[in-house]
Amino acid sequence: NSDQLTFLSMVQNHIVKNGGIEIESLYQAPFTMIKSGGIDEVFQDDDIILNEVFSIINDMKKPVLKGMHE
């Protein structure tokens, strides 16, 4: 829905601007401007997308090993 798209756009912009994001941030301003409960409330009807967003954020935190695919 439109709230979800807006929320994901905000997350994307935050990552580009700051080089990453902490999951805790998704429960704070400005992410609570769409829904006061943050990401949980925005995606309350779609656990699959909610879990995918968390997974992507966690994957971004993992270090990339050089030479892994050489």
Structural descriptors:
single chain, 70 residues, mainly alpha, globular
Helicity range: 40-55%
Measure the end-to-end span: 42 Å
Number of strands: 0
Radius of gyration: 14 Å
What is the strand content? Answer: under 5%
Shape: globular
Would you give an account of this structure?
The chain is mainly alpha-helical and 70 residues long. It has 3 helices and no strands. The chain has helices at 2-18, 39-42, 47-61. The radius of gyration is 14 Å and the shape is globular. It starts with a helix and ends in a 9-residue tail after the last helix.
In short:
This protein is mostly helical. It has helices spanning 2-18, 39-42, 47-61.
Question: What is this structure's SSE topology?
Answer:
Elements: H1 2-18, H2 39-42, H3 47-61
